[in-house]
Structures
1.
Amino acid sequence: MLDAAEQRALRRALEIAADPAVPLGPNPRVGCVILTSEGELLAEGHHRGAGTAHAEADALARAAGPHGAGPLGAGAAALRGATAVVTLEPCAHVGRTGPCTDALIEAGIGRVVIARRDPNPLATGGIQRLREAGIDVETDVETDVPAELAAAAEQLNRGWEHGLEHGRPLVTAKLALTLDGRAAAADGTSQWITGPAAREEVHLLRTICDTVLVGTGTARTDHPTLTARRPDGALHPRQPLRAVMGTGAAPSLPVLEGAGEEIRLRTRDPSAALAELFSRGGRHVLLEGGPTLAAAFLRAGLVDELIVHLAPTLLGAGRPAVEDLAIDTLTQRMDLELLDVAPLPSPGGRTDLRLTLRPRASPPGPVPSPSATSLPVSLDSSGARA
Amino acid sequence: MLDAAEQRALRRALEIAADPAVPLGPNPRVGCVILTSEGELLAEGHHRGAGTAHAEADALARAAGPHGAGPLGAGAAALRGATAVVTLEPCAHVGRTGPCTDALIEAGIGRVVIARRDPNPLATGGIQRLREAGIDVETDVETDVPAELAAAAEQLNRGWEHGLEHGRPLVTAKLALTLDGRAAAADGTSQWITGPAAREEVHLLRTICDTVLVGTGTARTDHPTLTARRPDGALHPRQPLRAVMGTGAAPSLPVLEGAGEEIRLRTRDPSAALAELFSRGGRHVLLEGGPTLAAAFLRAGLVDELIVHLAPTLLGAGRPAVEDLAIDTLTQRMDLELLDVAPLPSPGGRTDLRLTLRPRASPPGPVPSPSATSLPVSLDSSGARA
């Protein structure tokens, strides 16, 4: 069980781990907060990207007094019997830095609280090593902490964890469509199907994914900047890689100071595109359109999550939001699991809906007793997803 | 203010008014519960259709003792100073029966609680007449009672009230569609896009509307029975009029014992069809398809409410759920106001969504401060709407 001080420490560790100055991609984001055995804050630290200190080492250094750099330097003696609250299982391998487990053991830490286990086969073993050294290790904290804290821990390194498990980036497809499934009107106009709240959420999604991917058609038609901007137009501190995929001609994306790098993937094969993005460190790809690209990834079974912004409006004609899925008859339908529904109210009285869905791997099995409350319909429209 | 006994009485009055044995259509449904001044039940009554006693007269007769027919006969003396709780403003005109206001006054009723005012210019004036007779009249109870009670009072005679105000039936369009706006797959298969819970709700809708309307295309393709059935296949006690509209050829609907009467409207003009249905006593029409009929009514501005059953599934091709709306460009979009969202979970893990929407008469005006909680996302999926 986590006590109240440890829960607060975990919240803070997740917060500093998510520092927007830290790049996304092939390294996990990790935070560490060290408490005295009385629950007083000793030090905090986080990982700042490949080649920099791990979160535990960062926190230990800041806590260790004269040799530590941090303002909270409390001397090495204070660490004896202290508690380290970490967002990810401490590593047990020697990489560019020494194993964090050894550093914790040597510092005399008495207890370690771990939010997520490390799925990386190279790094795992940390829990066992800590326990062998006599340290009290608390894991599987999901049930001990508020749901939003468990969700934040899960979201923090979703793409990185997915990459370790599947060898390709996590793929989130974003669709903006009308109630009758249109992504554009008959004359091709599509700006804007959804209201300001939904569009602002897209910019937040771009800060959570490390890569934004569009097809050449969208690049030609929409000239999208694919930057993550605040409502006032200012750039978010973190900008995604901007990838354009396809064999057709397409102009370069608009050149903008501070925008993410642009790359061109000259393939129509979603697997090949994802392999290329993965090799460049991409771990979470946001598919932003258009309908042809979305259909290609759906057909290939390479969409892990759909975020649908549904505008309560009808067009009666125009480009469908999803193109041919090679489905001829109803039994071949592509069923999705509806995970969440939330309204996105905009000034002026427009309210779009955000639906979060996941393709079903296979026909749904029997569910014990489906109840109306089994679907989390969230009224929180703050938009932040991480 | 209503006291607790009066709130209970109103709940009961709404319940008996909605007796499924009472026909829908051109007469309002009304319930009346009479309480002693101590809040004890004296009698209850309801209207049973054209030519029968009004609810107040029914309740008074049951309460009035030897001459009353009811089991609760308590003698005329008990009515002195009693409270009558009625779902609709008592009438002040002489129709096939004498005015209810006079009957209440003569009986010596001391207080009358009225859930809804009578929008009928011929019947109105009841409140004034009661007050002139020295009776304490409580109106505009919406804010005094639980929201679901106020909603039930509003739902009870929605079609009837709409008819008085607009001179045509209320029109509810029901659409069943996929996330990408399809009503059928490429080969025309459409049974079933939605799960059992959504389909059961359609049967409940058919018991609330007095008329079900389909186009000749749907009659030809689907051979729909258009009956209101329970999940076990048994017919609901109330069955809608079954109307088929269009100038094309169409077979008769399936002949079924207990089903509603079938009529054919040989027109493609929604206004003409509604005028004909109104003259036959129709006050609430459920448009059940297909896409051509829905589009015709939407184009004509003759849809008052949309109930959309959205299946979380993709088809990528197939018949759109709404056909041509004569919209060429995005600015001509047909915006709808999203009133409610609710999940419809079915056994087997399928969850459809029910969206309730209303066409916007004009572009939305400025809204003071739209908040996330302004949209009632209801988790109640009981399906009952009245």
2.
Amino acid sequence: MSLLVVGSVAFDSIQTPTQTRERILGGSATYFSYAASFFAPVRLVGVVGEDFPAEHTALLKSRNIDTSGLHVIPGGKTFFWKGKYLPNMNDRETLEIELNVFGDFRPKLPDAFRRSEFIFLANGSPVTQMSVLEQATGPRLVVADTMDLWIRTQHGELMALLKRIDGLVMNDSEAKLLTDDENLVTAGHKILKLGPRFVVIKKGEHGAMFFSEHETYVLPAFPTERVIDPTGAGDSFAGGLMGYLASRGNFEPQTLKEAMAYGILVASFTVEDFSLDRLRRITKGDLDLRMERYRKMLSF
Amino acid sequence: MSLLVVGSVAFDSIQTPTQTRERILGGSATYFSYAASFFAPVRLVGVVGEDFPAEHTALLKSRNIDTSGLHVIPGGKTFFWKGKYLPNMNDRETLEIELNVFGDFRPKLPDAFRRSEFIFLANGSPVTQMSVLEQATGPRLVVADTMDLWIRTQHGELMALLKRIDGLVMNDSEAKLLTDDENLVTAGHKILKLGPRFVVIKKGEHGAMFFSEHETYVLPAFPTERVIDPTGAGDSFAGGLMGYLASRGNFEPQTLKEAMAYGILVASFTVEDFSLDRLRRITKGDLDLRMERYRKMLSF
């Protein structure tokens, strides 16, 4: 089934306790698309400046990612983020941020994209996310990400969005902020009452939780010794999840749980190197092999 | 098989964000014993003062816990701890601590306890823990807990102990401290090199990790909305784990994984009320029911 993502495409400069990288390929829609492309073709809507190298676009295209919705603004500069990870490789500080062309991002879906069956609204203002929904025609499944900024500054708009989407994906601190509840299980159930039919709370190195009317579960992260750069883990998770759902063409409980697991596993590869470097070196077969180990790990 | 625990028996005064309790039954050996007693008889070695109510001892005895190693010091006062949980219900502050008779605790195993096959050395100084081992005759499995205090102040003694035990159980921050490594997977492997044949790293609400030469895995905590008091969760986990192993009489990889799961589930009940209050209201059948739900949660 067709899968659409709307989000950021960016340059990231990243400092970890042991290494630094300058202006490498990043952005929520980038990680999402590449992760999803292991399972299904992807339609990407985003915006970049004239400084965005053709090789990056070519890389995405080579993965069956349709970049006809990636707008290039003449004379514009691509969204830039510079961040630093603390020694625990979990907390991070933003050192610099230049929204550039992303600051005026008003996503416009190409006609061919309007009828996408699965839609992922990567992190963005709820107003922007809503504007995408208004251009879409009868999607079967809409999932959105959000963040602390929008919870704080566009609360009403976010509440309106939550009534329009099927699934919400967010991280643990954001779920606590949104619900003012420190218990993630309670928080998950509270968010369900705000509209979405399912909620996924990402816990970074601790895995992810799933909530729907009839189900509550948590799946652990895949334990990896090689954590080089956690950037993009959450978007890769979402990409693996949505890509798998699109490939299966349904979102039954059993399919959703498998999708959660694939999301966790794609993310476990993403963090093993900077940018898309690790994902570029693996195949679907590597994901399936890790899935086999993951299933074995969880069975007793 | 026979199971021995040596550790603290205490009074706890506890403040959570919503409730407080004064001088309730606590202590590592208390939680351990009660948790283990769902699976196997337990031999307890500890020390209390004359102020320790007979009803507490009677409670333990009613669970097939042999308290003949629980020394009562005439005129002495029982170990007392007062603590306060922060709103996240994970971090806590010690407000008051009175070691009392526990300060002079020199565990002496009753003759009948020396030949115990499974031994758990609850948190205590590595010197005290070693003194227990010196009184034991040919145990089949020795597992110890430790804490930041001993890692910092009795490092050499702890290193000597690690060479004498089969398994080490500790929490995540302690594993990081011991290895100076922020990645728990790397930390687990480093600790294996210090002596133990297996290492368990407890992650509180995020579950527990297991490491041996051939295996690395993580099992999530059982998601519960009702977190009333996390005190004793770690010791209950260890009790469930060791109790199950003792009941099975082996520590094969498959048995160990089942034991990890039972440990996680007993702990998930412990946190649902103060002291032993929740554990006192459940049966082995409730544990098995939760195990069924846990297995289902982890299968897809």
3.
Amino acid sequence: MTPGSAALGHVRDRVDRALQAFVGQQRGVLLAAGDDLRPGADSIAGLLAGGKRLRPAFCYWGWRGAGGPDCPEIINAAAALELLHAGALVHDDLMDASDTRRGQPSLHRQFEARHAGRGWHGSAGAFGMGVAILLGDLLICWTDEMFHASGLPGDALRRGRPVLDRMRTEVFAGQYLDLLGQAAGDETVAGALRVVEFKTAKYTIERPLHLGAALAGAGPDLAGPGGPRAGGAGGTAGDGGTAGRDGSLAAAYTAYGLPLGIAFQLRDDILGVFGDPAQTGKPAGDDVREGKRTVLLAIARSRATAAQAQVIDRYLGDPLLDDAGTAEVRAAITGSGAVAECERMIGRHVREAIAALDGAPMTGEAREALAGLAVAATARDG
Amino acid sequence: MTPGSAALGHVRDRVDRALQAFVGQQRGVLLAAGDDLRPGADSIAGLLAGGKRLRPAFCYWGWRGAGGPDCPEIINAAAALELLHAGALVHDDLMDASDTRRGQPSLHRQFEARHAGRGWHGSAGAFGMGVAILLGDLLICWTDEMFHASGLPGDALRRGRPVLDRMRTEVFAGQYLDLLGQAAGDETVAGALRVVEFKTAKYTIERPLHLGAALAGAGPDLAGPGGPRAGGAGGTAGDGGTAGRDGSLAAAYTAYGLPLGIAFQLRDDILGVFGDPAQTGKPAGDDVREGKRTVLLAIARSRATAAQAQVIDRYLGDPLLDDAGTAEVRAAITGSGAVAECERMIGRHVREAIAALDGAPMTGEAREALAGLAVAATARDG
């Protein structure tokens, strides 16, 4: 076991148990409204059983790095991020018309099939969509409930709250930019990277670390509308009204989190085209089938020969893409040199992230865990 | 001006200003992610400019009734409910494929038109759906942000939090039951009333009152999974861990809120078929066109002659319903006696709601305001 998988495993099991306890309690509230809600409660529980718990892990180590003690309360607060993530995935799968998630049918497809199987009235697709919207909304709302019922002191929650707020606005803004770029046909690497900054780097790594730090009294200054930005004035300590700030720790988390987030997304981009379905929980070549506008594809386009570009254009967004087509697209992307370029970028960004931990005002244990997490989150075996 | 409209107007103007200030600040956060977010911010501001602010009014008077002082902080906390409501409406319009909201194109239609007008890539419908999902999510998340930044003391927020949580789980559960009943073809009056209990009565009236009361230290006991139920053991005071409970006030709010919620929905049902578009902000007969499974329609079906039932079945859910069809359906529903029956039910439920205020431990000013609100919320002129 690498230090990274140990750092992840240490948190994951406890996050799993916290989520199970929370969802079990919510099941009672749902069934009080009607026994018909059982399939919804079951689908939510099934979805939450999967996942690597990356965001809770970063939140936990953000807290520990700021000197917070190991305790069940921080696990509860960190686990709440997994509810937000599950809700966002349900809505994302709906928007992308994805058929699978974590090796199971996506939630809207589950309820579409239920409708079709029972011969109910109306459109099965509309029913699946409606249930997915509502259960995603529920999960997103439960984030706040679990966070505030975590057992952390009121002062800590008050410090963490603005970070959680900012994180959510940023992730939905990033997804909106993604939709818009896809519609408007922005195929530039710069456009794809801007989406990655908001939709992945801040959401998956920087803000969870900041949330942990803020809960422990060392959060970022969010007084300005945009907050700390990559390569900008990020992390200058300010006083936006919360106690116990430590600008230099929050700045180190930004300097670690943003490049690592890009590396993480690049790995995900590669897995989305080349990954093994048993590992990704998605069919082979799914990103190509769904026509996702990834950084990998933007780089491939920018480097492709005319013949390679033609292959990519022919299959991108083709819902009927088969194994032969997937193989052709893979060859074109690899042939363009985009995969090698992405691997170089991953290596460079991971080194940059780990270097940002040097000399940062955090505990040695947290520094080691975060260095391990950087490697684990971007490893070829996902 | 009636006492009810005065009680509503008193709160509405201040809620409007609080929402404007909050949304103005969020616009800055969104634009920091990219100037492309401007149309999204504009649509949100446009949607939030409308609305009767009923839920904030009930929250405010729930607080005042429990002895809370008039202050800007309770207005901020109450206004947060309007963000939840706006997000739920955006998602609701998408699920119902509604074209209009508050006299404007619904949000998904706005972005569908934007996509079509610019000749962007992909499906305009999918783009409109994606933007509506994301902006709805944002609004739902902002509920918590505005609530916690209201300026109310931490103790008050801690008491209010579980009520807000319960309210959200209940409303999404109610919407799920609605979808399910529609799909499974449940056309009973009892089925429609169960949906109304969760989707309208608790969400619009009972829980906003409970939230105000809990913020002021007189909230309901939510220790059981279902909480107080209409006609059940509702309102028995318990000690679920929050301070300063006053079971009899929370019970009075339930006894007022649940029948009033049913009356409010019945009025909405009548307006949805017979209302003037200038007043409802929706085209004439929109509920019929969308095939909504309302209590009014369930009563009409249960009383209709074979000929009347045939007319209702022919037009219900017909997206091409025109003025002549609307007139036919109206005649069939009226002829069945369902409208008169609904009017009788409205009158009976409003009287029951107002009677529940008698002798309840609340300030005289709040009792008068709530009696006025009961009339205003169910009046024929909407």
